[in-house]
Amino acid sequence: MYSWLNINLANTFMPVEGTELAGNVDNLYIFLLISSLISFIILIGGMTAFIVKYKRRSANDKTAYITHNNLLEFLWSFIPFVIMMVIFYWGKLIYDDYRTPPENAEEIHVTGRQWVWRFTYKNGYAFSTKPANAAMLNVPLNRPIKLVMTSGDVLHSFFIPGFRNKQDVVPGRYTYLWFKATKLGQFQVFCTEYCGLEHSNMPATVNVMPEAEYDTWVRAYVPEASGGGLADKGKEIFTERGCTACHSVNGTRIVGPTMKGLSGSKREFADGSSAVADDAYLRESILNSGAKIVKDYPAAMPIFKGQIEEEDVSALIDYIKSLK
Amino acid sequence: MAHTETHTSHDYLNHQKGLWSWLTTIDHKRIGIMYMIVILFFFLIGGIFALLIRLELFTAGPTLGIDPGTYNRLMTFHGAIMVFMVIVPGIPSIFGNFLIPIMLGAKDVAFPRLNLFSWYVFMTGAIIAFASLFFGGADTGWTFYTPYSIRQPNGVIFVVLGAFTMGMASILTGLNFIVTVHKLRAPGQTMTRIPLFVWATYATAIIQVLATPVLGITLLLLIAEKTLGVGIFDPALGGDPVLFQHFFWFYSHPAVYIMVLPAMGIISELIATYSKKTVFGYTAIAYSSLAIAAVSFIVWGHHMFVSSQSEFAGIMFSIITMLVGVPTAIKLFNWIATMYMGSIKLDAPMLFAIGFMFLFTIGGLTGVWLATLGMDVHFHDTYFVVAHFHYVMVGGTLMAFTGGIFYWFPKMFGKICKDSIARVSWVFIFTGFNVTFFPQFILGAMGMPRRYFDYLPQYESLNQVSTVGSWLIGFGFLIALYAIIDGLLRGEKASNNPWGGTTLEWLATSPPHHENFEKTPVVSVGPYEYR
Amino acid sequence: MSTVKTESHFHHAHHFDSAEHQYSSAKQGIWLFMVTEILMFGGLFVAYLIYKSLYAPVFHVGSSYLDVKMGTINTFLLITSSFTMALGIYFNQKNERKKAVISLALTILCAIGFMTVKFFEYNHKIHLGLVPGKYFNNPEFVQKVADFATNMQATSSSYQEIDIAALKKIAPLYFGFYFVMTGLHGFHVIIGACLIFWVMIRTAKGDFGSEYYTPVEGVGLFWHIVDLIWIYLFPLLYLVG
Amino acid sequence: MEEFVNYALYFIACVCVLVPLFGLGLAPGIIVNLELAAILGSLYAQIVEKGLIKALIKDKGDSPMIRPMVPALENVQRTIDSIEDGTFGKKKIDKSEEHGHHIIPISVYAGVLAILAIGTIITVGVAQLDFGPWNTVIAMFVATIKASFVLLFFMHLKYDNAMNKVIFGSGFFFLLILFSFSVIDIYTRIKPILGFPKF
Q1: Contact check, Cβ <8 Å, C228/D150
Q2: What is the pLDDT of residue D97?
Q3: Residue among B256, B370, B55, B143 nearest A195 (CA)
Q4: H or E segment and range at residue A156
């Protein structure tokens, strides 16, 4: 809990500063806060003073007839203008810092999907934030890191409050975000561009490690041929693609029907028809869920056609069939 | 000034009788009242959604037992209803329709039948949007960002189509006002003598006509995208989702000024009347409305600083956005200067005007923070933004709206609301508002993102404060509603000019004659001559 | 305003000073509406131009698939209809009711002709599977786009970065634009034809004359805007590749 | 006082546009254009205030170089005068109020139709030849000429009042804003990568 009652430091309720840039942002923040407070006091204080002083005494009070005053009007348009230009320039300087990563920055690839982040390191070490939620984006202390980001489906946004840094993750193009952590510890990551059902449940953690420790950690990874059967791969995809948000595997109802015992069972649909859940049905339901809506369930599932690779679909079907 | 007795037998309310005479009326005053009824109803629905959202956020994790999908639909409908059905049409369609012809000394708006037609278009749009609820609803947020909106079930199409249709109503209303102001001013009513409310609504109408068509084509393309898969905004087919944002904000940023400019107009009227003083810097306020309208078209990119828009475009939009601050500051200073050496009476409408000044100053100043490039990277899409635009939209527009209702109530219905009840409602709305939304600034600074169903435990205490505040606002608006109903049923008969206003509408009877004035007035002085 | 209107005794609405006042107000309103039309189509043009410059090969090959002959016929039909529409107003101004009705009828005929040609064009495209995104089904077109891009890469060094595999994926975009732009325009043609039919009937009934012909003028302005948009649409879609 | 405000506003304009852009080295193009505009503005002011055209007609009106231009120059001078005394465009409004129902002879309409037809033939013809990127420019140029004829004669804009002209012009102006600002972003940002990367 942040001690936001302490007004000595204006930025106390901002998260801990994890980078040098965050410190600069907080300085701008303090400047904005103080200058806004002064303007607020001038405006609202003045207004309150006038309300008190010029309260109506009787119904036929005489008032002054003042239509305008050029000097005054000039001053109160010019002075705010100058202040705002200063603020703009300050903000622009910080923005330049945000947008110019150092040449020697180490690249880490980030992919956003509904509703999981996947990190890929230079040496091929890759992992997702789900299902293993403990998987953290490990980064070294005092070394510039450049995240090269893209999205596999809809817009997301990678937001690290501790670094005061944020960048939308856009499908179809790469976006960049860089930082140089100056504080050890773990920093929260949020998704801040609305991306659907589990938008608020798409966290990640940046873990800042001492350089030596980071190097050992990254080198410990040895690329290996991925093992496991098709169903295992399907299980991974099932969690990664966020299917778990609506479909349980243990028989309980969430949003959509459960996957337990689905394969081979008889399905009744909203339009009154019914069918046996064979491979073809599963395929259709994954790719184009709207074709057959199961009775009593909402038509809420996104369409995956064109969004998912063919072998992934087979893996998913294998996995669903394994859930007896 | 007020000397003629009210002609109750000829006023617009009982000129003709029966529901049918209302539904087919081409009297701008009746159309204004019809807008008022439906918009207040939509406001009630949107408000209930807002209370549900706040209630759900009372604790971290699920509170009401609804799933995230339902929450997202609530959030979307709250936004869409409040933007497209309440705040955008609100002041122009209600007060603009009722007052602009009277303030100009005209008998009606330029195209009365078009005016009625736009009411029906508006209602059609609203019904289409609500029909979405029967087709799975929409959970895209009111911004309909692609590609998410393309991937969602077809309920989205209805909301989009509804917004498109209501946009058409907005265009027609704006067009009507522009021609009315150009062509139907009474003899002697020059452009420099029209009241500031008319100036503000005129500037708004210009934005409505020029910006809304782009929203129209954007939404049509979105529908084509969903039904045909055209691919203009769909990255899977080579489209560019950021271009959608450009098109969307080309309308939706000026729309912010559609929402707030008429409110500023109301404030100018209220402050002049209740200070009994000529508005300070009439020309400056009038032209600053136009300046805001003009500049508002070239600042939209400040909604997109982190959207992968180019750095150059970001810098350009940031500096232009700063320029909007100047005319806004001019307005605030001028209003306060109007109070100087005035004779200020704190009736309920004036309290709402003061509340507007207080809240809008906070909203405006935090707007400068958000226009600052470096700062916005942290604040973008957090609760800071939510707090900021509620300070401007609710604290600004709805405050002015409520104040305007109490101010013109005697003119509209010929009766007076109890000022004491209205003042009590102000106390609840004003305090409740600050309790609700001020903590959200802090939440945003702490990093809580917006549109979150669930949040980290450390944000809980402030969220609870905020939720409690929302109950206060809700209660305050209920009291205001009670004051209105009480005024309608039991209000005292109003004289023609109960507040001592000097604009033309106070020359008309209360409620006005069905042709506004029995004899077209001739204007020979400016609008605020208190000497 | 429910009184019977004769040519010389047009009663202006009660809130206007004179018929002239009402005429100029109505005209201003119509012009404002035309502005919204321009901006609405303008949004489409902006998107079109941006994508055209981003994915030049798709648009080049795409435009070669359109039938210039049909487009030219349609252009002539529309400019002729604009001319007859102008005549319709002219004859109303001159109180020559019969000629006015004939001109307006000719305008409607041109509109029907335009839509007929459009129908054949659409039919042909749909037959070939050249339809927007989701339903697109014409591998030959995709191959042509790829060939064209390869050719561009071979002849000019500035196109090296084109990713041909990706380009193949977005090839349907051209027909997305084609159908949305001409579709929206065609919708306006239909609306315009209906409006012209309405003023034609009213002209025949003798509602208009030299004193009052605002609806004809307004519908005429709308029709000319439809023509104006086609004047830009035609070269952009059919000719400039 | 009034003068002081005027100069102060001028100063604001300078500071507000030039200094930040210049200081940041953002857009030399914008600055060049603004300076050009300023030069043109001051040239205009000189012509108006010092009556350069009047002087030219008076002093050199007889020389063979200038004589053919005298009527045009006088026209310009008249327009300038009308702007200066605030009657610019007003005369036209009066005219259109009087002749609100301006009737254009059929021959003009027929002429416009012919021009439109010729324009169409030119566009189609030119498109068969290959001028590279100039094809677009020519096509758009011809289309604009055709469109202006439709606007001026078929839509009677030539005989309409100034307000309607401004209204219609504003449509194109705001379209230009939408176009230029979107394009500025598109061409200064990261290029799209076309298609999805594999997860």
Answers
A1: yes
A2: 43
A3: B143
A4: strand A156-160
Domain A230-322 classified CATH 3.40.50.300?
A: no
Lowest mean pLDDT among A73-87, A304-318, B170-184, C44-58: A304-318
CATH number at residue C44: 1.20.120.80
Which member of B110, B228, B237 has the closest CB to residue C170? B237
Query: Is the model's pLDDT at D20 over the cut of 60?
Result: no
Q: What is the ipTM of this complex?
A: 0.84
In 3D, which of A153, A157, A158, A191 has the Cα closest to residue A172? A153
Q: Encoding tokens for residue B253?
A: 């940023």
Is C136 a member of any domain?
yes
Task: For residue range D159-191, list pLDDT tens digits in order.
Answer: 888 888 888 888 888 888 888 888 888 877 755
The C-alpha atoms of residue B289 and residue B277 are separated, in whole angstroms, by: 21
Q: Render B474-508 in DSSP notation, one character per residue.
A: HHHHHHHHHHHHHHHHHPEEP-S-TT---SGGGTS
Q: How many domains is chain C built from?
A: 1
Beta carbons within 10 angstroms of residue D104's beta carbon? 17
Q: Which residues does chain D have within 8 Å of residue A88's beta carbon, measured at their own beta carbons?
A: 20
Could you tell me if residue C80 is inside a domain?
yes
Can you say how many angstroms the Cα of residue B238 is from the centroid of all Cα atoms in its chain?
37
Domains, chain B: 8-506 (1.20.210.10)
Residues spanned by the domain of C67:
19-239
Chain A contacts of D14, Cβ < 8 Å? Answer: none
* pLDDT tens-place string over residues B152-178: 888 899 999 999 999 999 999 999 999
Residue A274 phi, psi dihedral angles, 5° rounding: -150, 165
In the complex, which subunits touch C with 3 or more CB pairs below 8 angstroms? Answer: B, D
Mutate: best of A67, A68, A70, partner D, most D CBs <10 A = A70
Q: What is the pTM of this model?
A: 0.85
Is residue C213, in this structure, part of any structural domain at all? yes
CB-based contact C10:C214 (threshold 8 Å): no
Q: How many angstroms separate the CA of residue A320 from the nearest CA in chain B?
A: 23
What are D17's two structure tokens? 């546009």
Which one, of B141, B305, B158, lies nearest residue B223 by Cα?
Answer: B158
Does any domain span residue C11? no
Q: What is the pLDDT of residues B420-468, one digit of tens each?
A: 999 999 999 999 999 999 999 999 999 999 999 999 998 999 999 999 9
Distance CA B416, CA B510 (A): 10
For the purposes of burial, counting CB atoms within 10 Å of the CB of C9, is it exposed (0-12), middle (13-18) or buried (19 or more)? exposed
Distances (CA, A) of B334 to A76, B282, B348, D2: 9, 9, 21, 19
Containing H/E element for A118?
strand A116-120
Residue whose entry in the numeric block shows the structure tokens 């129908």? C119
Instruction: Name the pLDDT band for C136 (thresholds 50, 70, 90).
Output: confident
Which numeric CATH code is attached to A106-219? 2.60.40.420
Alpha helix ranges (H) inside B372-459 = 373-379, 383-392, 399-413, 419-446
Between the CA of residue B236 and those of A14, B51, C84, C175, D61, what are the distances in Å?
38, 38, 46, 16, 68
**Nearest-angstrom CA–CA distance, B146 and B156:** 12
Of B354, B362, B377, the CB nearest to A166: B377
Q: Which of C224, C6, C227, C2 has its CA nearest to residue C97? A: C6
User: At what angle are helices C68-93 and C97-128 packed, to 10 degrees?
Assistant: 160
Q: Cβ of D194 and C72 within 8 Å?
A: no
What is the residue-averaged pLDDT of chain B?
A: 91
Residues B469/B437, Cβ–Cβ less than 8 Å: yes
Provide, as residue numbers in chain B, all residues whose Cβ is less than 8 Å from the Cβ of A306. 236
